[in-house]
Write a structure and sequence with these properties.
Layout lengths: L3 H10 L4 H9 L3 E3 L4 E3 L2 H5 L5 E2 L5 H13 L5 E4 L3 H7 L6 E3 L4 E4 L10 E6 L5 H13 L3 E5 L7 H5 L2 H6 L2 E6 L5 H6 L6 E5 L11 H8 L6 E3 L5 H12 L6
Parallel strand pairs: 3-4, 7-8, 7-9, 9-10, 10-11
Antiparallel strand pairs: 1-2, 4-6, 5-6
Helix pairs in contact: 1-2, 4-5, 6-11
Length: about 250
């Protein structure tokens, strides 16, 4: 049992003794596997289990880290940037659901949706969907209700305006776009909630692999728009989840 809140609730409910609870809390907050030091108290501190970045790890390392988290009571584990080839090897040892376009694997079942409201994930074009799905699946793995609004870029603005009800009712919006990245500014001028802009590397020559969209989004005149790195759907999804789970403290 790695979540201190769960431990305290178990003591309150009488299913765990004070001595057993003390022992659980005293347990080492990490496990050193030699190639990785797995943070077993990440969820206690931040409310989210350690996320496994798969791109630069071997399949064997991914299996070892995930098994460590599972052994210590984690129910839902997110693996990001996992290639199809690597996923096929990892799946021989661990059961998970794999999403090829987003390069995301989710170990275990999705948690209950416990955010404050809905999170909208919107894209400028179909070519931006893989990055958007990385954000959307991250959000779902972290307990958020997600509304997807895809291919509503500024070259056909009526498509976005037809979804104004979703835009206006969102608690946070992730706007994913390449080319000139104008979608984030348009949504930022319509919404009364935080907008997280994700520039993508989609576009022709002078898009400079997403740099043009990044600079446009950073220079947005719409208040309330913040920007993550190029193609960083995971970072946007994680940040949006934090906003959607903000509680009044004290």
């Amino acid at each position: 049992m790695s979540n201190i809140k769960d431990i305290l609730e178990s003591v309150k409910g009488g299913t765990l003794s004070v001595d057993e609870a003390l022992l659980s809390i005293k347990e080492k907050p990490f496990e050193d596997l030699g190639y990785a030091v797995v943070d077993l108290h990440r969820r206690c501190r931040q409310g989210v289990t350690e996320v496994v970045y798969g791109a630069s790890k071997t399949p064997e390392q991914i299996v070892g880290i995930v098994n460590s988290l599972l052994k210590n009571g984690e129910k839902t584990i997110l693996i990001t940037r996992l290639s199809k080839e690597k996923a096929e090897i990892v799946k021989r040892s661990i059961s998970f659901t794999y999403y090829e376009g987003a390069k995301i694997a989710i170990v275990g079942s999705l948690p209950e949706k416990d955010g404050n409201g809905k999170v909208v994930v919107a894209t400028g074009g179909t070519s931006d969907i893989d990055v958007a799905e990385e954000a959307a699946l991250t959000l779902e793995a972290l307990g958020n209700e997600v509304v997807r609004i895809y291919d509503v870029g500024v070259s056909g603005l009526h498509r976005l305006l037809s979804r104004l009800d979703d835009i206006m009712s969102a608690s946070v919006i992730v706007a994913v776009a390449g080319m000139e990245g104008a979608l984030a500014s348009v949504i930022g001028g319509l919404a009364d909630c935080p907008v997280i802009a994700v520039p993508t590397s989609v576009g022709y020559g002078t898009c400079f692999n997403g740099l043009s969209a990044l600079l446009s989004m950073l220079n947005s005149c719409a208040s309330g728009v913040s920007v993550v790195n190029i193609d960083n759907g995971f970072g946007a999804g994680y940040q949006a989840s934090m906003i959607n789970h903000v509680r009044i403290k004290g």
